[in-house]
Amino acid sequence: KQEVTQIPAALSVPEGENLVLNCSFTDSAIYNLQWFRQDPGKGLTSLLLIQSSQREQTSGRLNASLDKSSGRSTLYIAASQPGDSATYLCAVRHDQKVTFGTGTKLQVIP
Amino acid sequence: DVKVTQSSRYLVKRTGEKVFLECVQDMDHENMFWYRQDPGLGLRLIYFSYDVKMKEKGDIPEGYSVSREKKERFSLILESASTNQTSMYLCASTSQGAHQPQHFGDGTRLSIL
Questions:
Q1: In Å, how far from its chain's centre is CA B68?
Q2: Cβ-based contacts of A43 with chain B (< 8 Å)
């Protein structure tokens, strides 16, 4: 059974810092990995999708990497801003299902 | 842009009631999903559907059923609501193909009293 872990569960950083969020998964037979952002009381907003054949994807200040063989992904956020404060979730797609991590709650302090 | 619309943002129902949660997507996606999200447990898959009138159980289907009569609409049904079904319910859709991302609605916060 696929298990997805995100560490740390919570992170607080001053504005302007670069930061890394981690995601690990137990079964490397995945189709893709997706990073989401969730604001309090809201649904999930897709940030980046990495196919199993890819190593990384970039969108603006965000860069996601994937090392399928070691079962790890990182989300790098450059020059963090207070508006980046949210919970960040990673999800791996395998077979017809998607398994989510429990998220990292990020607070960026002005 | 893909739009996934859930009919209610907040819903309060009583124990024993039959509850319907509706989800509509506007991008002709084949696959639709229902999740519930609880603190400390993350998102858990309740049911999903590959096509009209098709449904598959997820990880926690007990106490729920689903209906997909039209491609764009996927309904989650709580046959007899119980207090342990108080949760945030999220609907998602995606097109066929392993490389396609999931798109989510804004969620329904359901309280069972």
A1: 11
A2: 4, 6, 90, 104-107
pLDDT in tens, A27-54: 999 999 999 999 998 889 999 999 999 9
Q: DSSP letters along chain B, please?
A: ---EEES-SEEEE-TT--EEEEEEESS--SEEEEEEEETTTEEEEEEEESSTT--EE-S--TTEEEEEEETTEEEEEESS--GGG-EEEEEEEE-SSTTPPPEE---EEEEE-
Taking only the tens place, the pLDDT of each residue in B22-56 is 999 998 999 999 999 998 888 999 999 999 989 99
Residues 19-38 of B with CB under 8 A from A: 31, 33, 35
